[in-house]
Amino acid sequence: MTFAIDAVGKDTEPFSFSYTWKDAALYALGVGAKASELDYLYEGRGPRVLPSFAVIPAFEPVMRAIERINGPMDKVVHGTQRVKIHRPFAPKATLRTTAVVQGLYDLKRMTQTTVKTTTRDAETDELLCETSWGILFLGIGGTSSGERVQDEKPSPPSRPADFTVEEQTLPEQALLYRLSGDVNPLHADPEFPLVARFENKPILHGLATFGYMTRAIVQGALKGDSSKVTALQGRFSKPVWPGETLVTEGWIEGSRVFARTSVKERNEVVLSHCAADLA
Q1: 104 vs 258: CA distance, rounded Å
Q2: What residues are paired with 272 via a beta bridge?
Q3: What is the mean pLDDT of residues 194-219?
Q4: In which element (H, E) is residue 270 found?
Q5: What is the pLDDT of residues 56-88, one digit of tens each?
Q6: Mean pLDDT score, 149-163
Q7: Residue 178: what pLDDT?
Q8: Which of 32, 182, 252, 273 is catalytic?
Q9: Which residues pair with 115 in a beta bridge?
C-alpha cells in the first residue's frame, strides 16, 4: 500500500461535537467511575467532566485524518496519548475539532505517525484542549514525510509511590466505554478477525485504561478535583482484558504527578511513562 503523502500537514475539515451531562457521565462510567465520584455522574452537581474526556470529540477527526493519508486501520497500533487542557470542560457544550497528521516516519518494519487535534468552543472559538495520538502502522515501511515528533518519556522517581489506586474493571467495561464513540469490533466481537491476536478475546480500549489512570491521579493526588489538571500523557505497552484489575501507582513531584498502571492478575505494566501536569 502507499500512504497519501500530500495529506500530511493539512488540517481536516472541522468536526462538530455536541454533548450534554449525560455524555460526560456515560464517559465517566466507561472509565470506571463509582458512586463515590458523584461529582462526575450526577447532574445535580454539574457534573464535572474528567480531563481525559478530551479524546472523545477528537476521535472522529483522528479517524478522518488517518483515512486521508490512506492509513490501513487493520495495521494500526495506538502507541502513545497526550492531552493538553486549556480550560475545564463545561457540563454541556458544542465543540469544533480539527485534526492533522504531523508526519510519517519510516521505522523499516513499521511507520510511525502523530495525529494532533485542536478543539474549540463552537460558539466562542475559545481553545479548550489539544490532543496528540502516537500511531504505528505495523508491517509497513519505506515512507517518510514531515518532521518526526519526539515523545517525552516521563519516568517516576526511584522511591515508593505516594498513592496506589486499585480497581477491578467490569467484564462489560469495553461494551460500556464504546458507547462514547469508539465502536471498533475489536472491543466487542469475539469473532472479529483482529481479536485472534489477543487470545481470541475482545480487549479493553487503551483509552479506557488511560481514563482509569486519569481518575486514579484525580483521586490520589487531587482529592477528586480534576480542574487542576492541565496535561496528561501515557504510553500503551500491553493489552487489558475486561474484568482484569488495574493498579495505578502515583508519585507527586511539585506540579507534576508521575504514574504507571499495571494489571494485578498478570503483574504487567500496561500503561507506562504516564504524567499529569497541574496548574
Answers
A1: 29
A2: 235
A3: 96
A4: strand 268-278
A5: 999 999 999 999 999 988 888 899 999 999 999
A6: 89
A7: 98
A8: 182
A9: 101, 133
Catalytic status, residue 11: no
182 is catalytic: yes
Say if pTM beats, i.e. exceeds, 0.90.
Answer: yes
- The class of domain 163-278 in CATH terms is alpha beta
Is residue 187 flagged as an active site residue? Answer: yes
**Alpha-carbon distance 166 to 153, whole Å?**
24
The β-bridge partners of 119 are 97, 129
Note the CATH architecture for domain 5-138. Answer: Roll (3.10)
Q: Which residues contact 215 (CB under 8 A, 6 or more apart)?
A: 31, 32, 33, 37, 50, 165
Residues 140, 191: Cα–Cα separation, whole Å: 25
CA within 13 Å, CB half, 77 = 16
163-278 has the same fold as 5-138: yes
Extents of the domains making up the chain: 5-138, 163-278
Give pLDDT tens digits for 3-44. 999 999 999 999 999 999 999 999 999 999 999 999 999 999
Q: Please enumerate in sequence order all residues whose Cβ is within 8 A of that of 150, keeping only pairs 6 or more positions apart, or say none.
A: none
Q: Which of 71, 79, 140, 187 is catalytic?
A: 187
pLDDT tens digit string along 208-230?
Answer: 999 999 999 999 999 999 999 99
Number of helices (H), then strands (E), in the chain: 4, 10
